[in-house]
Specification:
- There is one protein chain.
- The protein is mostly helical and 138 residues long.
- It has one domain (6-137).
- Helices cover 70% and strands 0% of the residues.
- The protein is built from eight helices and no strands.
- The longest helix has 19 residues, at 6-24.
- The radius of gyration is 14 Å and the shape is globular.
- The relative contact order is 0.17.
Length: 138
């Protein structure tokens, strides 16, 4: 992770906080994750630079809600830490591999991330990403 720039680490944190905020606002966590990872908002987060990246998690959530035509209210609610970890890992994964959010989600969807959190959140993030990729091959 030492090859990440400060701005990239900050964007990982912003995305983690976005995922936490979605939970705090009562959205269905897996549905939010799927909507986000396949959205134009995520595509713009994947860009080298887009002003939206620095708009903050509240604005990102508003943009996603508008793009989705309204995010579904709580059905499956995750804890704060699993939501933050999932958002952070997805963004870090993009920076380490260059894969798009949509492609990353196709490898490790919300169910995979929810199931992986307990055992993988204590690992080095790069190792967790490698393990998630290995899980997808099975």
């Amino acid at each position: 992770m030492d090859k990440l720039r400060l701005d990239q680490r900050q964007l990982c944190d912003i995305q983690g906080r976005l995922f936490e905020l979605a939970r705090a606002n009562g959205y269905d966590c897996p549905a939010f994750i799927e909507a986000f990872m396949n959205s134009d908002v995520a595509r713009r987060m994947d860009s080298t630079f887009d002003f939206l990246q620095w708009a903050g998690e509240e604005y990102l959530l508003e943009e996603l809600d508008a793009e989705a035509g309204g995010l579904p209210p709580a059905g499956a609610t995750w804890g704060r830490e699993p939501m933050y970890w999932t958002g952070y890992i997805y963004r870090l994964w993009h920076y380490l591999t260059g894969e798009t959010s949509r492609d990353i989600y196709a490898i490790a969807d919300a169910d995979t991330m929810g199931g992986a959190y307990l055992g993988m959140h204590v690992l080095d993030p790069q190792l967790a990403i490698e393990n998630l990729k290995e899980l997808a091959k099975r």
